[in-house]
Structures are given as structure tokens and as C-alpha cells.
Amino acid sequence: MSDLIVVAFDELDDARTAMGRLRALEREGQVQFEDTALVERTLEGEIHVRNELSGATETGAAIGALVGAVVTFFFPVVGIVVGAAGGAAVGSLFKTGVESSFVDEVKQRLSPGRSALFLVVRRASTDAVIAALEPFKGAVIQSTLPPDAEDELRRVLAL
Length: 159
Fold this sequence. Notes:
Elements: E1 3-9, H1 14-27, E2 31-41, E3 47-51, H2 55-74, H3 76-93, H4 100-109, E4 114-124, H5 126-133, E5 138-143, H6 147-158
Antiparallel strand pairs: 1-4, 1-5, 2-3, 2-4
Helix pairs in contact: 1-5, 2-3, 5-6
């Protein structure tokens, strides 16, 4: 089962910088994400949302490509259409990732000059994730981490 972690940062660039640190952990095999999203509200109040591909989208695209390749071999034009439709259908069957309505709710509550990071974590070294977020100031908005890990994350972000 995946964990959801949503953190609002005090500084505009912190979500992007924190995501970079977490992607380094991902390359090292210490964390695996199902989905991520960044929200930034500029000092002028403009909101920028950056959603990254979820595992469901990637799975759907891979299955769609495979189906498309097989069908294209026999029926070239139909294969392209079937592959695209099949990939979209498979991706939509998986109910994973960050709900867009929740992202919308958080972005409306975010003060100018702040940012937020949404993480759906499939597998992780919780200690490594907390250590990666420790240099930043912010607050946990929502988490499905075990209570002791969530308390530690709240503590390091408040320092």
C-alpha cells in the first residue's frame, strides 16, 4: 500500500529543491514514487502546478504500446488507434496517484511565496525521506505515514 505525504513549504523554491533531493534517493533505490505533484504560488499570487507521471499512467502507456505494436503488425492504422485507446483505458482503471481535487484545495489555501509537494510513495526508507526533507521549513498538511514517522517529519520541518 502506498503512503501519501503532503508538505507545504515556507519558501517558493523549496518544493522543487526537495523534489530534486527525493529524486536522488529514487535513483539510489531508497524510494519509489507512485505519483508526485508540485504546487507553487508566486509572490504575485500566480499558481503553478506540475504533475508528474504516475505509475498508472506509465503502466497504461506501456501496455498501450505493446497492444499497439501487436495490432499494428496485422492492421497498421487500427493498431495506432487501439494502442492509444488501450493505454488510456488501462491507465484510468488504476485508482492511484494524487487526486486533482485535493491538489486544487491545497493550491487555493497556499499563501503567496509558498510551495507544496505531494508525494504518493509506493516504497521508501522513511528515515531517508525525512532526512531529505530536514533542511526545509514547512508543515505536514496530510500524511498516511505511521504516527511516529509523521511526528518525526513534523518535528524536522518545524525546526
